Amino acid sequence: MIRTENLHKTFNDNPVLRGVDLEIEDGETFAIIGRSGSGKSVLMKHLIGLIKPSEGRVLIDGVDINTLPYRELRRVRQQFGVLFQGSALFDSMSAFENVAFPLKTFTEKSEKEIEEEVNRCLTMVELPEVGPLMPSELSGGMKKRVGLARAISLRPQYIFYDEPNTGLDPETSNTIDDLISDLAERLKVTSIIVTHDMHSVLSIADRAGFIHKGKLHWVGTVDEMHRSDNNILLDFVKANEYQIGRPKR
Amino acid sequence: MPVGPAGMLNPVRALGRYSLLMFQAFGSLHELSIYRKNLFDQMVKIGIESIPIVALTAAFSGAVTTVQTAYQLTSPLYPKSLIGSIVAPSMILELGAVVTAFILTGRVGARIAAELGTMRVTEQIDALEAMGLNSVGYLIIPRVLAGVIMFPVLYISAVLVGIGGGIIVADLGGWLEAAEFIDGAREFFNPFDPVFGCIKSLVFGFVITSISCFKGYYTRGGAEGVGRSTTESAVTSCVFILLADLLLAVTLL
Predict the structure, then answer these.
(1) In this complex, how many residue pairs, one in chain A and one in chain B, have their CB atoms less than 8 Å apart?
(2) How many domains does chain B divide into?
(3) Are residues A73 and A53 in the same domain?
(4) A239 — contact with chain B (CB < 8 Å)?
(5) This prediction's pTM
(6) Distance between CA A210 and CA B208 in Å, rounded?
(7) What's the complex ipTM?
(8) Which of A74, A86, A102 sits opposite B123 (nearest CB)?
(9) Is residue A112 domain-shared with residue A209, that is, in the same domain?
(10) Residue A220 per-residue DSSP state
(11) For A179-229, what is each residue's pLDDT tens digit?
């Protein structure tokens, strides 16, 4: 389980997070939603331990990750798979090498076992044939899927998605959404998705948290979202629906 | 850019961050087995792939120094072999190390800063950290070690090629024969000179790679930030090469 308590973060006197209390249950798909610049990605980087809070705690399975020595923190991070906004594939490595990298670095697997594992991951993201290609030869959607294959290669307990649909066409975006749902189901992982795309949220999330100006304004199931009396949330949802048409469900 | 006391603190703050980064990098030396492959890759990129440009520059440096020395020593009172006595120590003590360092600031330092800077702005460094890897150790240790190991090798190549270039030009230009050049070079040869040159190249190797890693690792912003880091790494490296050159000459000679 992931929990944050009274999380504050200030960059150069500019408060970005202002007391975020959040609880994400094991096995659920939780979406962190909000406008651009609301603090969503900063919150996600706190959950992974990439940014230290100015105040407050981040607890992963009851352990405050910010009190851990660096070596222990790195061990905790090995339970995480992260899909970054721009995929963050290592551009000096092929798609195969990107997915193989965590396996070669953190496991004692033989070359043959690694090859099998990489092929399994690439097949799960429906790209079994792209192994030899370099990131520069892949489309945006393919990069996201290879990034996802890399994120799941160590069979993580938690998968974080930072704006997984940004910059993708609607069809590819739907494919990524389906993939996120499918992986959550098949791997029994906890998924945390940072997005401002309500279409995705309504399609794949069990619960969502709405963050606005560094504060968590609302948390609930996606079905409860339209019944909320939080005007800022409703404005955000309506603006998204106006842009994308009616949601899937 | 802040001015006044805050602006004056910037170099001190940068020095502090640089020291901490190096401390953190060398603190991860015990994980060298993870970085071994990366170390060999960097040794090839920094060392082996730099040999052609270093050799070319050294050959011309040796040749030009020979021609200019011959041009100045016109008096018949000076033996011709004196040209070898001047060119060889110049290459061994100064040109072999410093010219190589300046060339590598552009070729190696700029590449390191741009590479790490791009990795920073495209979240590749965050990706390394998020998967549980020590990004400082993984990215910085192989580059700095490769620089420290390969720069002396490049220095030795530069000295040999530079003196060789001098001998060929002196012989072909009719200023003095190869045997005279070598006699002159041997006459004033001090065994400590190449040791001093190796120490210098080792220090320069550390200066260039560590400063470039520092500038690249802490890149901020997008493409403009990468460009800024690359320029700053080249300028800062050049300044510190000159400072280190003077400091080593004053303390060791």
Answers:
(1) 52
(2) 1
(3) yes
(4) no
(5) 0.87
(6) 47
(7) 0.87
(8) A86
(9) no
(10) E
(11) 899 888 888 899 999 988 888 888 889 999 999 888 998 999 988 887 888
